[in-house]
Amino acid sequence: MRNWKCKLAVLMQYKTSHREANRRQKKRRFRNLNSRMKILREEMEEISEEQKEIKEGQRQVREKFEAIEMECEQLRKETMLIIQQNASTQIRLALMFQIFKARENHEFSKASQLTCALRELIARENKAKEALMAN
């Protein structure tokens, strides 16, 4: 009987120490899990901040791009205006040269017609400028 009681006592000690070991192991796992969760939360916060910075950077790039597009459009308009002014100047110079040649050749009626055409052209250009400035 004594042998049986010893075996029972040894078995109970084994179970008790085994339970405590299991408890310690569970606590360690729980601590490890909590520490991993804490690290993951911190990493998620960092990622969130990085995403906010990226969005802000994208917004700034978009604003700069829009400003550049507006500036390009303004430059296109100014270029077209310069081209139109250049063409108008070329036409006026051609008329003035023809007037000069007509007077040189004593073709006064032709010079008169060309002078009237030049006056009309200048008057139309002035009206167009006034209308453009009114808008």
What does the secondary structure layout of this molecule look like, with pairings?
Layout: H1 2-104, H2 108-134
Helix pairs in contact: 1-2
The total of helices stands at 2
Distance between the termini: 117 Å
| Share of residues in helices | over 70%
Low-confidence stretches: none
Secondary-structure element sequence?
Answer: HH
Strand content: under 5%
Decide which structural class fits the backbone.
mainly alpha
pLDDT averaged over residues: 88
Main sheet characteristics: none
Number of strands: 0
Our Rg estimate from Cα atoms comes to: 47 Å
Shape: rod-shaped
Structure, explained:
By secondary structure, the protein is mostly helical. The chain is 96% helix and 0% strand. It has helices at residues 2-104, 108-134. Helix 1 (2-104) packs antiparallel against helix 2 (108-134). The longest helix is centred in the middle third of the chain and has 103 residues, at 2-104. The model has no long low-confidence stretch (mean pLDDT 88).
